[in-house]
Amino acid sequence: MSINTKDGEKIDMSGCFITLEGGEGAGKSTQISALKKRLEACNLEVVQTREPGGCPSAERIRSLLVTGQPGDLGQKAELLLMEAARAEHIRQTIKPALDRGAWVLCDRFTDSTVAYQGHGRGMDHGDIKWLNQWVTNGLEPDLTLVLDIEPDQGLKRTAQRTHNETRFEQEALLFHQRVRAGFQNLALAEPERFRVIDAHLPIGHVEKLIWQAVDNVRQRKKR
Questions:
Q1: What is the pLDDT of residues 53-107, one digit of tens each?
Q2: Closest by alpha carbon to 155, among 134, 167, 169, 166?
Q3: Total domains in the fold of the chain
Q4: CATH number of the domain bearing residue 104
Q5: Which residues are bridge partners to 106 per DSSP?
Q6: Cα–Cα separations (whole angstroms), residue 126 to 21, 85, 117, 133, 193
Q7: pLDDT of 156-180, one tens digit each?
Q8: Residue 178: domain span
């Protein structure tokens, strides 16, 4: 985990913060569970969490964001609800875990807000960046893994599930293509933090690629 000071200097803190990002149907849930087991086998405390959600109050906000129809919320309300859930998530779950030295694995974080509300919705990126910075107080992941998949392929996967969290899945294909481009642009802008994983590959292969990236971080932490 790193914190940005007002001077732009990064300070390493205790614990390790890893985020998994990607479009709908990329396989994040499957891979984050597998990664948790690998890290626990290394005798590490691991906290698996998600956004929006990750604590009781944020989970209640999640239900407003991921269920219902795409037009149920205006863009500003959607963005502010995302940030409100994040503020509680960090306060109640992420920061306490990192402070005690745990490894936190989070399914989505601030990069999803940039990709979905910024690129997907077309909202002002400067506003989103400011809100993310304000809510997180400069908290950044040590590593961000983007599971990259063609949107039409990802949506075919989600269509096979039985669940009611389909508000974003119901968006037009063009929306999901813009989201994918957003993640790709973020990865290009910060290659030191991001690793892009081809999510079209077999699940076992994806798991190995993820572990290679995470184990590099683990080895650095041990030095």
A1: 999 999 999 999 999 999 999 999 999 999 999 999 999 999 999 999 999 999 9
A2: 169
A3: 1
A4: 3.40.50.300
A5: 19, 49
A6: 21, 20, 12, 11, 20
A7: 999 988 789 999 999 999 999 999 9
A8: 2-222
